[in-house]
Amino acid sequence: MVPVFDNERLNVTFSPSPNSFAFVNGIEVVSIQNNLYGDVANVEDTGMFRTWHDDSVYIFSSATGLTPYRSNVTITYTQETPAYTAPAIVYRTSRTMGRNPIINMKYNLTCILSIDTGFNYLLRLHFCEIQLQIINVGERVFDIYINNRTADLSVDVIDQSGGNSKPMYKDYVVLIPNESGQSQQDLWLALHPSKDVSKYADAILNGLKIFRLNKS
Questions:
Q1: Reported pTM
Q2: CA neighbor of 81 nearest in space, from 49, 126, 39
């Protein structure tokens, strides 16, 4: 991410290696709002000009679940999820549904966020299994819903990230139309355990970023 403020110009320069040429097939520039990122106080982020906010104010109803935190875990970044994706404290913290599988199957872990209508939004969900009892494929598998529509099924963080303490993220794009004439509406993000697939009827979310995509 490159910060470009009012009246500034973004210059991108390609310098060829000796005895070679420089070329590019295309460049896509996405502008984002200043307060895009959500705050874990005093976090030393990776030079990305971000803060990270506590998610408790966005959780629907009293179904807040649990917030497992493992301060001494070493987050093992990968080529697919490098260190600049999110600071380690985002992945050391998490929100899960709870210890009772019967109750978990009866509700969703839901976040509600008020956003502007008439735009496409990119939702980036951050995941990292940090609990010591979740180390094998199939132990925590869940589905993802955005605005009451299925976004993903059978998400297994251990399987897709490569193991415990290895972070990953998943991106989803959703259009929020301005059909009602209202300037804002609620965006619903819900997680629910996958039925008859997961050893533990549970879901996990470590972090969420929302990008409002310009119409240009």
A1: 0.79
A2: 126
